[in-house]
């Protein structure tokens, strides 16, 4: 497994596994504590694993946690997703940058998203399973959502949105969220 820094988002990493394929399919390690530790992250800090299943065109996000935030490892375990990270850490050298990635079950690449960054994704295949490893128990009182189509971010979502939660549909703009965080 190889760890690669994401230049557009300070502190973000892609963890690319080595895949072994044969006539049966493939095998790869999707988490390696030593590799995670090698980039300065504590592999024991992750306390919850979750999975979501989405159909083609579903958009989830942009989601953020208030308070101490939450770091997470995100991987598309089946299918393919267009994944987006937005750096909302005012002290970060990449503040307000965003980066996008195509994550897929074929590659099993894992994206590490630092606390203070917003995250969202869109399913690109008929079925897409997205796995999360999170460093804090979920507290719905800390949930923050930003409009996926905020013109300031201008994220180039690849497909028309076929479905999203009511919370995501009614999400405020980035400017509104930042104004609220500063007050």
TrEMBL record:
Keywords: Isomerase. Its EC number is 5.1.3.13. The keyword Isomerase applies. The keyword Isomerase applies. It comes from the Bacteria. This is dTDP-4-dehydrorhamnose 3,5-epimerase. It comes from Streptomyces achmelvichensis.
